[in-house]
Design goal:
Among the domains are: 3-138, P-loop containing nucleotide triphosphate hydrolases (Rossmann fold); 144-206; 879-929, Arc Repressor Mutant, subunit A, CATH 1.10.10.10. α3 (88-99) links the parallel β3 (76-81) and β4 (106-111). A 5-stranded parallel sheet has the order 2-3-4-1-5, covered by helices on one side. Strands 6-8-7 form a 3-stranded antiparallel sheet. It is built from 44 helices and 8 strands. α19 (406-423) runs antiparallel to α20, α26 runs antiparallel to α27 and α34 runs antiparallel to α35. It is mainly alpha-helical and 933 residues long. It comes from Streptomyces filamentosus NRRL 15998. Residues 859-869 have a biased composition (Basic residues). This is Large transcriptional regulator. Keywords: ATP-binding, Nucleotide-binding. One of its GO terms (molecular function) is ATP binding.
């Protein structure tokens, strides 16, 4: 476990390499726990010295060491452990033995430098006369660095998930990297119940290992009672402290305090940690000493520590507060907490401020006046930063406090409403809280009333219509102007930008230009950053992908500079959406998963990542994973997703349901999702839902509702400049045209539908959106092939040669399609070329399911082949191309029925292909097949 000192190994290896060379004496110093004895054991096992005799000498042990007149006629390695324990007689004997070392021999002597009777002289107070031929070396063991601590943690904890970077950093800090302390503390964590999960708080709460506690307490209480308060002061300060601070906290006075510091250093109770700064060599030891200090004495020490730390610059107010609290000084504690939180917030360390304030406000008996000061501070930090459910619970309790002034209660209710809506995804509840807050604040604080009204302008939440948000915009703008507050005006402008961009207001881009990005007021800059990021998010939904980069770059830079981590994280979610739509799929799944992990405490913040990951899973054919990701993995209700994100997720779920031939369920899902978008009235947000919802209703036979959807979509868009929605409208019209043509048996209608699909594909190519372009190109090709089928079913005869069955049904991106009479060869050839291109585009993106489906559609136009042509491989021991496709989809989790629908095969044929693939690969199950292929 404890590493050998590499230089010590090399030094002794050289001594034995040349038997004619002079002897070598190696001194190895290291404080308690650094692994000196372990080092000697490793030196004793040096592979370079197979013929060398080993002699152990454990100083201070009865009968330890060889006789001083023992004649060494063969090469010998003398291993001397803990020479600081030797008495005068043993030291004299050791000195004579070392002076008599012969060529070909060596000695390694270890000691604790802090326990030597004479500092720097391991062999006693008088200088030793070293023989001329003796080479004398000195080495020093060092504490472990963080990487070495990580390896030890992985070894002891089994390399489990609890071996986190946070835990490793805390271990290194608490133990000072002293190997013995690290190993002992890890052993305690391994046995911890409940099981250690890898947090720094768990490391801090684990306690002090027995070996370390006994060592530091023995050294402390070896001091005289008059000197111990100096060590107690170091334990209370719990970190490197200047000598005058230690003396001031100890209460000993200058002269007695200086004397006590010298005695503490001589006894190794304390160590010099830096020039003029002192403390415990192992920081964890402070807790062991602190626990032994009598209560009244400890309170006095904390009182003096608070005063001493208050004189440092800059003042560590959080530490000052903890000392006031431990001293029983409630007012001083609360004042220090307030200053610490304000300082942290001013420098953008919102999470630090939140944690401190939550812990403080959760303490019973906090005076109402203090709660009225601290609670708004918590709320402001929580809204700006990142927070968990705990803050919401604290605020919900505080707003029920009847002793709070109305203005304070209104402010807290405002921040609570913002958190419920923006960070927790509890829109309906948050909306109600914000409406109450706006009413409460209207009479007492116009600035905050404007802030509440501005929050109600945000259109993303389900429920309220676009007209309701416009009404709140009018009220918020008037309140902001009345307040005369520039930051408030900017906040309203930022929300106005989001509202205008959402429905493609022609003035939206002019509003973006009005954001005060050059302001020197941090509050204005934070709001401007939010406005830019709101604009970027809306630009993604509208389809202005080329403008997103500039908005996000500037918005994130302003958010970082002004300390707005929530805005930074929301911008990261927008980036993931942009990357999906524009086809930047390489590594995107991993980026989504990392973002979800980074925001685990606030899953709503990562809802963009969940949906993008789900969309990727659909394209990859990982349908089980797709359902899980699209439902946010149960972290919160999907009905609370922002409207555009909810519509996108719903569209993907409807597509999956259609692919599974569950048409009635798909239609019900389509009606429910469409109702949410229609009630909101922001029609560009229907873009990712409309094509799939229209297809679901059309295939379910509810063509009247499907036509009404397309009509409402078109009327709702009007003349709005929303490129993604325009492309989706063309796609939706093509779906209707295809369905009507199939129902009426009109080949010309299928060709017209194909032309509309091609227009949609061209619109998507312009954006650019390669995946949507490929999907609509595939649909166009499907329509042409169906028109060219001559009245038979699409794909008739295409599978008879190899699979024994022709594909049947509508060969859509999510289901089946019959055929119609033929069209001209040029049109068919063009459609086939388009299908080949989109199949390759799917492959390049990594859309396994889509690529397989497109290739299957192409095969329906290949003539049936009887028997096997000369030279055609039999695939007797290798997977055939069809077996490989089926195995790929099966390993992704698709059922036989789902694979059959995708590849235009019967479930029986799919079953035969899977059986063949398992036999050829030796797979024991479908899951095993995934690894084999």
């Amino acid at each position: 476990m404890i590493a050998t000192c590499g230089s010590a190994r090399r030094s002794l290896a050289r001594a034995f390499a040349d038997r004619d060379a002079g002897p070598v004496l190696l001194f190895v110093e290291g404080s308690a726990g650094l692994g000196k004895t372990h080092l000697l054991r490793e030196l004793a096992d040096l592979p370079e010295t197979p013929d060398v005799a080993r002699l152990w000498w454990r100083c201070g042990a009865e009968g330890g060491g060889p006789e001083e007149d023992e004649a060494w006629r063969e090469p010998t390695l003398l291993l001397v452990d803990d020479v600081h324990r030797a008495d005068e007689d043993e030291l004299r004997r050791l000195r004579r033995v070392l002076a008599g070392l012969e060529p070909g021999s060596a000695a390694a002597v270890t000691y604790r430098p802090e326990e030597l009777p004479v500092p720097g002289m391991p062999l006693g107070g008088s200088a030793m006369t070293y023989p001329f031929r003796l080479t004398v070396l000195r080495d020093r063991l060092a504490p472990w660095d963080e990487e070495r601590v990580r390896r030890a943690a992985a070894e002891v904890l089994g390399g489990s998930e609890s071996c986190t970077a946070e835990a490793v950093s805390a271990l290194r800090e608490r133990t000072g990297g002293v190997p013995r302390a690290v190993v002992d503390l890890l052993a305690m964590l391994r046995e911890q119940r409940p099981v250690f999960t890898g947090t720094a708080a768990e490391v801090a709460a684990a306690g002090v290992p027995t070996r370390l506690a006994e060592l530091v307490l023995s050294r402390t209480y070896a001091l005289s009672p008059a000197h111990r308060p100096l060590v107690w002061a170091a334990a209370v300060l719990d970190g490197p402290a200047a000598g005058d601070e230690l003396i001031a906290v100890s209460g000993l006075g200058a002269v007695p305090g200086s004397d006590a510091l010298l005695r503490a250093l001589e006894s190794a109770a304390l160590a010099e940690l830096g020039e003029g700064h002192y403390g415990f060599a192992v920081p964890l030891a402070a807790a062991a000493v602190r626990d032994t200090v009598p209560g009244p004495v400890r309170q006095d020490l904390h009182r003096r520590a608070a005063r001493a730390l208050g004189r440092r610059q800059p003042v560590a107010w959080a530490s000052v507060g903890e000392h006031h609290r431990a001293a029983g000084e409630c007012r001083g504690w609360l004042r220090a907490v307030e200053k610490a939180a304000e300082s942290a917030a001013a420098s953008g360390r919102h999470q630090e401020a939140i944690t401190l304030l939550e812990r403080t406000l959760a303490t019973p008996g906090i005076p109402p006046q203090a709660r009225a000061r601290l609670a708004p501070l918590l709320a402001r930090n929580a809204v700006t930063g990142l927070r968990s459910d705990q803050t919401v619970e604290v605020l919900e309790q505080i707003v029920r406090d009847a002793d709070l002034p109305p203005a304070v209660r209104g402010e807290l209710r405002l921040d609570l409403g913002l958190m419920l809506s923006n960070q927790m995804g509890r829109f309906e509840e948050g909306w109600r809280v914000l409406e109450v807050a706006a009413a409460e604040l209207r009479e007492v604080r116009s600035v905050l009333a404007a802030r509440a009204m501005a929050a109600l302008v945000t259109p993303y939440w389900p429920g309220a219509s676009l007209d309701v948000h416009r009404g709140w915009l009018i009220k918020a703008s008037a309140a902001a102007d009345d307040s005369g507050d520039d930051a408030m005006r900017t906040a309203v402008l930022a929300n106005h930008v989001g509202l205008a961009m959402s429905w493609a207001d022609p003035e939206a881009w002019d509003l973006v230009e009005q954001l005060p990005v050059q302001s020197t007021d941090p509050a204005c800059v934070r709001q401007a950053a939010r406005g830019l990021c709101n604009a970027a998010d809306s630009a993604v939904w509208l389809g202005f992908y080329r403008r997103v980069d500039g908005l996000l770059t500037e918005g994130r830079e302003l958010a970082t500079r002004s300390g707005a981590p929530y805005t930074e994280h929301s911008a990261s979610g927008t980036r993931l959406l942009q990357e999906f739509w524009t086809g930047q799929w390489l590594g995107l799944a991993k980026r989504c998963e990392e973002f979800v992990a980074d925001t685990a405490d606030m899953p709503f913040l990562s809802s963009d990542a969940y949906v993008v990951r789900g969309l990727l899973a659909v394209a990859h054919g990982d349908w089980g994973e797709a359902r899980s990701w699209l439902s946010q993995r149960g972290t919160f209700g999907t009905e609370n997703l922002p409207v555009p994100l909810g519509a996108t997720a719903a569209g993907a779920v409807i597509r999956l349901t259609l692919a599974r031939q569950e048409v009635a369920d798909a239609a019900e899902q389509a009606r429910a999702a469409w109702t949410v978008v229609a009630e909101k009235g922001v029609w560009p947000w229907a873009a990712e839902l409309a094509p799939w919802a229209v297809e679901a209703l059309a295939r379910a036979g509810d063509t009247a509702t499907a036509h009404a959807m397309v009509r409402d979509f078109a009327q709702g868009l009007g003349e709005a400049d929303a490129p993604a929605a325009r492309a989706a409208l063309a796609w939706s019209r093509a779906v209707l045209a295809e369905n009507d043509a199939l129902a009426e048996g009109r080949p010309d209608g299928l060709l017209a539908a194909a032309e509309t699909y091609r227009k949609a594909a061209a619109a998507y190519a312009e954006l650019p959106r390669p995946y949507s372009q490929a999907l609509t190109t595939e649909c166009a090709g499907r329509c042409v092939l169906a028109a060219d089928a001559g009245g038979g079913e699409a794909g008739e005869g295409g599978e008879a040669g190899e699979d024994g069955e022709a594909g049947k049904g509508r060969a859509s991106a999510s289901g089946e399609a019959p055929a119609a009479p033929a069209c001209d060869r040029a049109t068919t050839a063009s459609a086939i070329a388009g299908l080949e291109a989109c199949a390759q585009q799917f492959t390049d993106l990594g859309a396994v399911w889509d690529a397989t489906r497109a290739r299957a559609l192409l095969r329906t136009r290949q003539p049936a082949k009887k028997g096997r042509p000369p030279g055609r491989p039999s695939h007797s021991d290798q997977l055939s191309p069809r077996e490989a496709e089926v195995a790929q989809l099966a390993s992704s989790g698709l059922t036989n029925r789902e694979i059959a629908a995708t590849l235009h095969l019967s479930p029986r044929t799919v079953e035969q292909h899977i059986a063949g693939a398992m036999r050829k690969t030796g797979a024991l199950s479908r899951r095993d097949l995934a690894h084999r292929i």
